[in-house]
Design brief:
58% of the residues lie in helices and 11% in strands. It has 19 helices and 16 strands. The chain has helices spanning 7-27, 36-48, 67-77, 79-94, 101-126, 139-168, 172-179, 184-204, 212-310, 317-346, 358-375, 395-412, 470-480, 524-530, 545-557, 568-578, 594-602, 623-632, 644-654; strands at residues 54-56, 61-63, 354-356, 379-384, 391-393, 418-426, 429-436, 484-488, 496-503, 507-508, 537-541, 561-565, 582-585, 614-618, 636-639, 642-643.
Length: 659
């Protein structure tokens, strides 16, 4: 819209200028020179020439063949009468292409302005215009014809091109060159014909004007032929553009096909490399397995042969039995690791989930590893957060995780090194980290450290044995408990830190309890609360099965009638029928979270449970989480892990039972 907004002001400016020129011409009109030949010229312009309009392609305009008569009037009668005739021509020819008043006035004004400029230029260069035909075919006369043709052409096409340029938004030079440059020849032909006919009228009378007919026909045919050529060129250009677009589309499709081919080739090459790497790892694993199994067998067979040859009571008997037992244990551990990997791969690994004291698990694992650590003068220290309660898990598998990490540290660390075991909270999870002062891990191998059959040194000259399964088993066991593993190392020679984290239990039950899922706190307040929920209906919603079991057990132990569901949809179905006294829901759940659940509950009527007191029992424990839970419609926010007493107290408070 930048250039288009100037189109209307420009047109009205030209109209105002043309009106002024017309008024001046009328004022200075030489009435004495009005005669019958002038009337004939006017009729020719209005009735014939101005009605032969050829439309210009791509713009709302056209050109006429009346320039010859306007030039002839200018040479015979002067500028004032030529301006009047030009205005009449512009008015009549405009009616052929448009009915808009502004367009008609603008075209008439353009003819007035261009004819005025031509008359002014001609009189300025050659003196009296009407005297020019009487001077003969001199150089001055020919020069005057050229000035008349070029001035009229430049003024007329320039004023029109400027208006089209504003409307289309194209530069003036491009518009003028595309639509009006080719009309110059017709102005030159019209001016030349007018000069010749003016001479003939001077010699033979006004009847010589009939000679303009073939000239008008020639100009008209020239216009038509040229416009047809323009249209043909435009059609060819459009066809060429279509061909270019089709070619570009073909090239794009070809490029896309090449990219797809390259992508498939790269994928195939990557798959081949991965297959070759897997095959290489398999071969290395089988060679390592053979070595690790044959090594203890060699010791067992060797000592068995020595003991048989030495006979009973030989001094080396105790030493030999100890070596045989140690080798058998190593072989048993290898077989156990292989069986664990097989169970993990086939999805047959089973966990005996119960309440586990992680601090005790760590202490037991340290005691198992301590003899090996003492043999290398390795110091093992532990730091455990005393405020941590038990977690849910398989105690044997969790001890296996800690034991594998400790054995891994002790195996690689040099004599006199240190191992630090830490247990604490980290980002709303329970985290166990084992750091050592060992040889560290290279940045290249660090991302692969938990992969199966991966070893930093897989050569025949490696300093440490093993199948490369221990850390892979650690990762799978921790993930089976809903946790994550991580390995960090600044680099070779700077030690390493192996850690795993487990989710917090939904309900924290004190470690001193004998039956953690079925007892409350031993305090008097807890005992009072344990019997305070009799007759209350509590609807529990949590996607974690272990959490549902523990929460339900604690509340039932306190006398509540509990129904537990794994999803918000199930809870919404049961709520209107069962009409619980208290709703207790987790927040983070798949498909539909606790926020969506409470919004739908609050949308229900009171008769269908829409006003049931509700608590959000969630591991999202930030202040903003608490604020949002209350804003969404919960009356209470309880952060996981919640103790038994806190859980019962929350239900009792919501049900308005005094504890």
């Amino acid at each position: 819209m930048g250039r288009q907004r100037f189109a209307a002001p420009y047109m009205w400016g030209v109209v105002a200028t043309g009106a002024a020129i017309l008024l001046v011409s009328l004022y200075r009109l030489p009435l004495a020179r009005l005669d019958a030949p002038l009337l004939i010229l006017a009729l020719l312009v209005v009735a014939v020439s101005s009605n032969v309009v050829i439309r210009i392609p791509l713009v709302s305009g056209g050109i006429t063949v009346s320039d010859t008569f306007i030039f002839l009037t200018l040479l015979l009668y002067g500028g004032e009468l030529a301006i009047l005739l030009a205005v009449a021509d512009g008015f009549c020819s405009s009616l052929r292409v448009s009915r808009r008043p502004r367009t008609i006035l603008f075209n008439s004004a353009v003819m007035a302005c261009s004819t005025f400029i031509t008359a002014w230029a001609l009189s300025g260069c050659c003196g009296s215009i009407v005297e020019l035909p009487r001077a003969g075919y001199t150089g001055g006369f020919i020069g005057a014809i050229c000035v008349m043709a070029l001035t009229q052409y430049i003024a007329n096409s320039g004023l029109i091109a400027a208006e089209k340029s504003f409307k289309t938004g194209q530069p003036f030079s491009i518009t003028w060159r595309a639509f009006y440059l080719w009309t110059s020849v017709t102005y030159i032909a019209g001016a030349s014909a007018a000069g010749i006919i003016a001479k003939l009228i001077g010699s033979f009378g006004f009847y010589a004007v009939t000679l303009t007919a073939p000239i008008v026909v020639v100009v008209y045919l020239t216009y038509r032929t040229y416009l047809k050529n323009i249209e043909a060129s435009r059609a060819q250009a459009e066809q060429a553009e279509r061909h270019i677009e089709e070619l570009n589309h073909y090239l794009s499709e070809l490029k896309r096909a090449e990219e797809e081919r390259d992508r498939l080739f790269n994928r195939e090459r990557q798959a081949r490399n991965e297959a070759e790497a897997a095959n290489r790892i398999k071969d290395e694993f089988l060679a390592t397995l053979s070595h690790e199994l044959r090594t203890p067998l060699t010791s067992i067979l060797g000592w068995a042969n020595l003991l048989r040859a030495a006979g009973p009571g030989a001094p080396m008997g105790a030493r030999g039995l100890e070596a045989i037992e140690r080798s058998a244990q190593n072989q048993k551990q290898l077989i156990d690791d292989l069986l664990d990997v097989s169970r993990i791969i086939t999805g047959q690994l089973r966990l005996d989930v119960r309440q586990v004291d992680l601090a005790q698990v760590i202490a037991d694992a340290v005691e198992v590893v301590r003899p090996a650590a003492d043999a290398k003068r390795i110091q093992i220290s532990c730091e455990c957060d005393p405020a941590l309660g038990p977690v849910w898990g398989d105690p044997g598998r969790l001890q296996q995780v800690v034991w594998n990490l400790l054995v891994n540290a002790v195996k690689f660390i040099q004599e006199g090194g240190r191992v630090m075991v830490m247990l604490g909270h980290f980002d709303n999870r329970i985290r166990v980290s084992i750091s050592d002062t060992g040889p560290g891990i290279s940045p290249e191998f660090l991302p692969l450290v938990f992969d199966r059959f991966r070893q930093a040194d897989g050569t025949s000259t490696r300093a440490h044995g093993g199948l490369g399964l221990g850390l892979a088993i650690v990762r799978h066991l921790v993930e089976a408990h809903g946790g994550t593993v991580a390995a960090e190392s600044p680099g070779v020679g700077h030690g390493a830190v192996f850690s795993f984290s487990l989710p917090l239990p939904a309900v924290r039950i004190e470690a001193g309890e004998v039956e953690p899922a079925n007892r409350m706190l031993e305090s008097r307040r807890g005992q009072a609360a344990a019997n305070s929920l009799g007759g209350l209906r509590v609807l529990v919603v949590d996607d974690d099965e272990d959490a549902r079991i523990v929460i339900s057990a604690v509340l039932r132990r306190s006398g509540a009638d509990v129904k537990a569901f794994a999803s918000a949809g199930e809870a919404l179905t049961a709520l209107p029928r069962w009409r619980p006294d208290v709703l207790m829901s987790d927040i983070g759940m798949p498909n539909e979270d606790g926020y969506s659940l409470i919004r739908k509950v609050r949308a229900l009527t009171g008769e269908h449970g829409g006003k049931v007191p509700a608590a959000a029992l969630t591991a999202y424990a930030r202040d903003e989480d608490r604020t949002r839970a209350i804003a969404e419609g919960y009356q209470m926010h309880v952060a996981k892990p919640a103790s038994s007493a806190e859980l019962v107290a929350a239900v009792a408070t919501l049900a308005k039972v005094i504890v």
